[in-house]
Write a structure and sequence with these properties.
It contains eleven helices and 19 strands. The protein is an alpha/beta fold. It is globular. Bound molecules: pyridoxal-5'-phosphate.
């Protein structure tokens, strides 16, 4: 797809197309009812050019670290467009976020809330808090489930009746709403709508029974996009109308803006914008099997899969012509875990060829084992309208002296 870029910058190289980022963003806004805020989860891809493109079309930023904070600010997000989330916010991180002017935090426990409140007080301010709720159950059985079981994420819903008086009395913090992020990567539209129904029902009940404020209700995300295989982003033709009906049923005040609504997405917004150009280093036969050794393995893509976490690695490359037989795509690392696809149909390949792995704009470089075995990190090229916007590389290989 971008052979000239491989020739110019070498491999492995990621190419991110900002036109596709804009298209994904507009598509997702179009799937949501009017007035929804859409937070871009920078964990999917913190590249400031991608984040900037999303902001230009109305997205806000969801961050969970100092690095993501820096990238969100570099991308032009104002502090009041940022939501800080995550189960392990340290005092140092909170300090930096507050100093930068961030005021909206999702908290995962009473003690997390106390930390946020204490740092806000130190800065002479009050933090706005979304209570992340770990719902008692969930409706969807597919996708990556994050709630409805014991978890580091969210406050167990059944403990809220006792906790609520404590949560609303923490100095330096004001509970302003709720945050639900129950699942990721839901391909089934009915399952997603079922999940949202459960979330909206739970939020309305918490407000009614416990007086939970709902100035801002973040109902989560779950929007699916293919990962490292060809294919389009999932369409959700019933979502907008379905959500409107659910909102009218459970939180009719949404229409007046009394309850502000938000969703979050990482993979849907950036996933299909990125391709990885990987070079073939060697092709070898072993006991009747073909191994295509690439210069990009789990150090460059799918690292979370490589260590047995999340989606199984099954990279599907794009190529012209016919497959000539099965082969395994493996990376350059000295571990059998560095496998991108086993016995998959492949064309004739030789050292020096360049393969394109599509749909890796999310959970690519930064979700990989970039330091493992000390190989160079991939080059990242950002394009718009066929023109190069930026060329960069992360550098995590050097050892820095730390003062004793
Ligand atoms: C709180 C939160 N928000 C957003 C996301 C982004 O998920 P996705 O990339 O599937 O949209 C995640 C992913 O784990 C998450 O934990």
């Amino acid at each position: 797809m971008y052979p000239d870029l491989a020739a110019r910058f070498g491999t492995p190289t990621y190419v991110y197309d900002l036109d596709v980022v804009a298209e994904s963003r507009d598509q997702l806004f179009g799937l949501l009812p009017e007035g929804f805020h859409l937070y871009y989860a920078l964990k999917a891809n913190p590249h400031p050019e991608i984040a900037r493109e999303l902001r230009a079309g109305g997205c806000r930023a969801e961050i969970s670290s100092t690095g993501e904070l820096a990238n969100a600010l570099a991308a032009g997000f104002a502090p009041d467009e940022i939501l800080y989330t995550g189960p392990g916010k340290t005092d140092v991180e909170l300090d930096l976020a507050m100093a930068a002017g961030v005021r909206l935090f999702s908290v995962e426990s009473y003690t997390d809330l106390q930390h946020v409140g204490a740092i806000a007080e130190k800065h002479g301010t009050t933090a706005s808090i979304l209570l992340r709720v770990n719902t008692t159950a969930g409706s969807a059985a597919t996708g990556i489930r994050m709630m409805g079981r014991p978890s580091q994420f969210g406050i167990d819903a059944e403990t809220l009746p006792d906790l609520m008086p404590l949560l609303t009395a923490v100095p330096g913090a004001r509970v302003a709403g709720a945050h639900f992020f129950t699942m990721s990567n839901a391909q089934d539209e009915d399952a997603l709508l079922g999940e949202y129904e459960f979330v909206l029902q739970s939020a309305a009940q918490l407000r009614r029974e416990l007086g939970l404020p709902l100035e801002l209700l973040d109902i989560g995300g779950g929007f699916s996009s293919p990962y490292a295989v060809p294919g389009p982003r999932t369409d959700y033709p019933k979502l907008r109308l379905g959500l409107e009906m659910l909102l009218d049923l459970y939180l009719p005040e949404w229409r007046s803006g009394e309850v502000q609504l938000a969703c979050e997405s990482g993979r849907y917004l950036s996933g299909s914008s990125g391709s990885l150009l990987a070079g073939v280093v060697n092709v070898k036969e072993s006991r009747g099997s073909r191994f295509v050794v690439l210069d990009a393995g789990i150090n460059a893509v799918g690292g979370l899969s490589g260590i047995g976490r999340l989606l199984p690695a099954a990279v599907g490359i794009e190529y012209d012509g016919e497959a000539t037989g099965p082969g395994s795509l493996v990376g350059p690392l000295c571990t059998p875990g560095d496998s991108l696809a086993k016995a998959t149909p492949l064309p004739e390949l030789a050292a020096g060829d360049v393969l394109t792995v599509p749909n890796v704009g999310a959970y690519g470089v930064t979700a990989s084992l970039i330091s493992f075995l000390g190989r160079p990190t991939p080059t990242e090229v950002v394009v718009r309208g066929g023109e190069i916007v930026s060329v960069s590389r992360l550098d995590y290989q050097r050892v820095y002296e730390v003062a004793p």
